[in-house]
Amino acid sequence: QVQLQESGPGLVKPSQTLSLTCTVSGESITSNYYSWTWIRQPPGKGLEWMGAIASGGDTHYSPSLRSRTSIFRDTSKNQFTLQLSSVTPEDTAVYYCARDSLWNGIDYWGQGTQVTVSS
Fold first, then answer.
1. I need a labelling partner for 53 at 20 to 30 A (CA). Which of 21, 43, 68, 109 fits?
2. Largest separation between any pair of C-alpha atoms in the chain
3. Any residues with CB less than 8 A from the CB of 35 and at least 6 apart, and which?
């Protein structure tokens, strides 16, 4: 069974860089036909797709976040990491990592982790 687990600080100061890691078990992040995705949900708002890293290592970002977002991976640990720079309180959200299947869309989610941007 595929499992995803987010980890990282729950509190980040404005202007700093938010960094979250997703550890995947039950599936290799280099397996074909899957992308590994970051999604967030600010309080009182809907889900926002942030970006993804494909099995071959290609990355894709939301146009609205591209200038501040980086996603990279450590295949030896089966992990992928989100970095979001120059954060503001508007980046306060629950952050999820997820698997995006070529056939079924997003089919596995992490439990989510709350990140608050505050001084």
1. 43
2. 43
3. 52, 53, 54, 55, 60, 99, 100
In which element (H, E) is residue 36 found?
A: strand 34-41
Q: What would the pLDDT profile of 67-82 be if each residue is shown by its tens digit? A: 999 999 999 999 999 9
The residue-averaged pLDDT of 12-37 equals 97
User: In b/e form, how buried is each residue of 10-46, taking b as 16+ CB within 10 angstroms?
Assistant: eebeeeeebbbbbbbeebebeeeebbbbbbbeeeeee
Q: What percent of the chain has pLDDT over 70?
A: 100
Q: Identify any residues that bridge with 7 across adjacent strands, giving them in sequence order.
A: 21
The SS3 assignment for 64 reads coil
